[in-house]
Amino acid sequence: MPEAVRTDDISPDEPARVGRPRDPRVDTAIAKATLELLVEDGYQATTIQAIARRAGVSAPSVYRRWSSKAELIEEAVFPSGLLAPEAITGDVITDLKPYCLQILEYLSDPAIRAAIPGLLVEYQNDHAMWQRGMERSVTPMRASFRDYIAKTGRDPVVDADQLFDVMLGALFTRALNEGAEGAEAFAHAVAKVITTTLDESKVGPS
C-alpha cells in the first residue's frame, strides 16, 4: 500500500475551508489509486471508500474534489488536453497513423477498458454528465481533427465531423474488443481509410 498522503486531511467531520488550496500530491494519489483499483477490481468495486483507503486519505477529502465516483473516474481516465494530429508532412497516412495509434493504445489501457462500460451506464442515466464528458474530451479532439483536415487542403467526401466519428468509433471498438494487439497495423488501416475519403483535386501544386 502506498505511503499515506494526509496533507489536506482535516477532521472528516470538519467542513472544507473556503479558499483552502488543494494539495496536488493528494490529487495525484487519488487518481493513481483510482486507476489501480479499476484494473484490480473493476468499475463497480472501485468505490470512493476503497479509493480513499488506497490513496491514504479520508473519504471527505475525495468528496471535496469530486461529487461522485463517476465524476472522479471520468476525470482519472479522460484527462483534459487529449490528442491532436501532429504537424503536416504532406502525407495524410504519415500524419494520421501515429495519431490513430496513440488513441488506440490509450483506449487499450486496462484501466480505461475497465472504466468505459461503467461510465457508459452512468452517461445513460445522466445526460448532463455525458455532455460534460464530451465537452472535456471528445469535442476538443473533434475540433483539432477538423482543423487538421482543413490544413491538408483536401475536401472529405463526407462531413469532417462524421469522418472523425467513423475514425474514433473504429478505434474505440477495436480497443475494447482487442486491446492493443495488432494496434500498429490497425492504426495504419484506419489512417489509410481516412485518406481514401479525402478529395485531392483541390490540393495545389507543391
What does this structure look like?
The protein has 206 residues and is mainly alpha-helical. It folds into two domains: 24-76, Arc Repressor Mutant, subunit A (Orthogonal Bundle); 92-202, Tetracycline Repressor, domain 2. The chain has helices at residues 24-41, 48-55, 59-63, 69-77, 92-107, 110-125, 127-136, 138-152, 160-178, 183-196; strands at 155-156, 198-199. It has a two-stranded antiparallel ribbon with strand order 1-2. α1 crosses α2 (48-55), α5 (92-107) crosses α9 and α8 crosses α9 (160-178). The longest helix has 19 residues, at 160-178. It is elongated. Residues 1-19 have low confidence and may be disordered.
Secondary structure blueprint with pairings:
Layout: H1 24-41, H2 48-55, H3 59-63, H4 69-77, H5 92-107, H6 110-125, H7 127-136, H8 138-152, E1 155-156, H9 160-178, H10 183-196, E2 198-199
Helix pairs in contact: 1-2, 1-4, 1-6, 4-6, 5-9, 5-10, 6-7, 8-9, 9-10
Label this structure with key terms:
mainly alpha, Arc Repressor Mutant, subunit A, Tetracycline Repressor, domain 2, 2 domains, 63% helix
Nearest-integer average pLDDT: 85
Shape: elongated
**CA-atom Rg in angstroms:** 20 Å
Count of separate DSSP helical elements? 10
Outline of this structure?
This protein is mainly α.
